[in-house]
Amino acid sequence: MSHHLVEYFTLIRSKALTWEKDSSILIEDGYEWRKYGQKKIINAKYLRSYYRCSYKSDEECEAMKHVQRIQEDPPLYRTIYYGHHSCKISLSNSEITLLEPNNTSSMFLSFNDNLQIKEQYPAFSSPLSVPTKQEPIDAINPYHNQLTSSDYPFSCDYKLEFDNFRHATMLSSTKSVPFHDGF
DNA sequence: CAGATTTGACCCCG
DNA sequence: CGGGGTCAAATCTG
After folding, report:
1. φ, ψ for residue A50 (rounded to 5)?
2. How far does the CA of A106 sit from the C1' of B6, in Å?
3. How far is CA A101 from CA A28, A76, A81, A84, A104, in A?
4. What is the pLDDT of residue A167?
5. Residue A88: which domain range?
6. A143 inside domain
7. CA–CA distance from A65 to each of A18, A21, A114, A145, A154 (Å)?
8. What's the Å distance between residue A131 CA and nucleotide B3 C1'?
9. Which residue of A87, A106, A126, A183 could cross-link A135, Cys pair, CB 3.0 to 4.6 Å?
10. Which residue stretches of chain A have pLDDT < 50?
11. DSSP assignment, residue A33?
12. Does any domain span residue A104?
């Protein structure tokens, strides 16, 4: 069963290896992350979680990511990646195409048919990509049954936005969800 | 017991 | 000074 995830990627800063990804369902991104912090962000309803690559100490891998839920209904999570993985260790899912932008173009869009959702994590098990531990998912469990692929049909209505940071955000949503919550 | 997470303190920078 | 990023000790988990 292919989940047609509709996601968008935005290169925030072309010099820094930084990009962000919003997804309406939690996906495995192929890496293991260790959480090292969590913060309440003003004007945001939800906590932001801070992760770094699990292999940072072993292999000097500097990759990090921040994950923050930005919307309740439907659930939407924003993941900002920093740096790239110098470690070779991924979850050995060759199916997973890593979500790393490879050039300095301001944006690109990806409709991931090839992103694999781990079967043992049906719709939600972890709001993040660390499958080894259960997460405090109480809040999102109510949405478990809503997040079937049928609720997220593949649709292609794009919305392009430019902000004063000269970075373009291509928003693609099945429901043209407005953004708010301080973003 | 080892490795991950939690959580408040610390700290940096605008 | 405060927001937000990181540290680290305590705690948790398997």
Report:
1. -115, 125
2. 37
3. 17, 21, 10, 10, 8
4. 33
5. 5-137+148-172
6. no
7. 9, 10, 21, 27, 27
8. 14
9. A126
10. 1-7, 12-15, 91-98, 102-183
11. E
12. yes
